[in-house]
């Protein structure tokens, strides 16, 4: 796929992808975010009849539509026009968050192993992770799960060969060039390095997901006492955001 | 005094579902909703509800429910063994028609015949608060009424109507035809990540639905599908019906509770008209696939919508011929039954 090409691919008769690339990189992701914003504006203006919703991802925007209400060819043409008109649109500046996390060995079972591979001490690994500003590329997989890019080289490893059947909620995890927090207990193949008491998804909040694409995230190490106190607090801990 | 429907026994896996929770997939929230949207719409039509009113989705074996309102009209779409008891012996009754129940009556929703799902609609619907715009249940993230979980024994589901409208009971003039033959797909979005042989294999082989079949998806066994290079892609969006193929080469068709994005290449996507069929298949079912263009898929869907509308327009009063002996004998829910008309034991 050439650098500036836009490709349309089909997901049956209810959706199509507008693809800007096939890899995870910030330039491609910014184009996705720009188109998602343009589509949102067009819908607010009453346009794009039959569109149901969109899913922005690393490299593509999925457009889901009602085949009984939408004219597929017309919708595709309108979206492509928006993509071309907004190709250079500046990305809205996301919010900035500081997420507290406890890196104790029983909460982040894989941290020591990752450290051994990288030849770094536990403190050095925690320093690397808390010293990084991550960017949210997309949400997905499960409610509130944010794929955050920018992981330092030393922390990068492929996903585990065999996924864990149960990853505890709040787990801070890394895989490839990405970092994420599991908002819910689930199976998962990423490496666990710590746990946060922050709730990443709460359907009584609006919006229910804490993070959005474009947001920037830093982690802060918290000790066990602070972690346990925050976890017992029935009011959900809100991280420091700006 | 409770006011609603009391769950005496929850059945195998009974959840509250409507047509889905849309508008939050960009936050990672699955659409959920009925696996068989046609079945849900038909059940609602029989009790005069709007098409998308929330129903109980019955998986394999339904609940036992006691009526704790003055009266209620219910209908179960699909071929399901039903029995109503008013204090005495349960009396088998037909599905695919409405029934009027009164306070204290018990409805036993038995096995679903030949399908995995069926729908129980209540006239007026449930008096439950939507969560993020929908009454659909998504247990993993606690979304939906009852925290997205199946109602447990003892749960009282509140209803909008304390008594049903004074209408006659109705049924369909003919059954819904879900269609047979291959499941139709549109190739893509990553058909080019597979070998040409893999695409040909998908369209020429017989696949079997394994025991791993639930609201998230169906795992299939059969001929393996080979990728050109890798099974992994940079994760992108999923819709119900996407056929993703992990490194094992065994396809997985995702259904209503699917993850919003996936990192496995997708060889094809089931067309929307054939999704309700997949929402009803039981493990062990053999499936074949045929490719269509998007335009063909749209035409098929439009024709199907016309058929559903015809079916709903053709709803007729239940013929008043008294006891339906075929249903009585066919239901096989009680033993030692005596035909009250002929006096012969069966």
UniProtKB/TrEMBL annotation, chain B:
Keywords: ATP-binding, Hydrolase, Nucleotide-binding. It comes from Paramagnetospirillum magnetotacticum MS-1. This is Allophanate hydrolase 2 subunit 2. NCBIfam families: urea_amlyse_rel (TIGR00724). The keyword Transcription regulation does not apply. Residues 26-307 form the Carboxyltransferase domain. The keyword Lipid biosynthesis does not apply. One of its GO terms (molecular function) is hydrolase activity. InterPro entries: CT_A_B, Cyclophilin-like_dom_sf, PxpC. SMART domains: AHS2. SUPFAM superfamilies: Cyclophilin-like (SSF50891). It comes from the Bacteria.
